[in-house]
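Schema walk-through. Below, the input block comes first and the output block second. Nothing else is stored per chain. Lengths vary across the set, and this one has 127 residues.
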Amino acid sequence: MTPIRRGLLLFAHGARDPRWAAPFEAMLARLRARRPERVVRLAFLELMTPDLPHAAEELAAEGCRRIDIVPLFLGMGGHLRNDLPPLVDRLRERLPGVEFRLHGAVGEAPAVIDALAAHALDLTDLP
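--- output ---
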């Protein structure tokens, strides 16, 4: 039995200044280096491209039948509660052969909270 090809879609807010995306692009590069077999894309809610539908369509075109959407937000604010679920519902309608799994904001994961707290302490412990 052939395993299902899985895609990973990192979802960020977007900004007018393209330099804002640098940390997200660095994350994308690290993911690709760690898991070269995994198909990974970065998408934005607004102001930057690609948007979520285009990135999801690219993953589906590459044969992904399961796409995990990971919001790169610190918390579950209005965009993730109100804007993202309807976008994912439309993707499910548009790409019925693809299973979409929507995850919570990365900033609410205990490991991320621990890493941010450790970083803040590291900064303040410097002479």
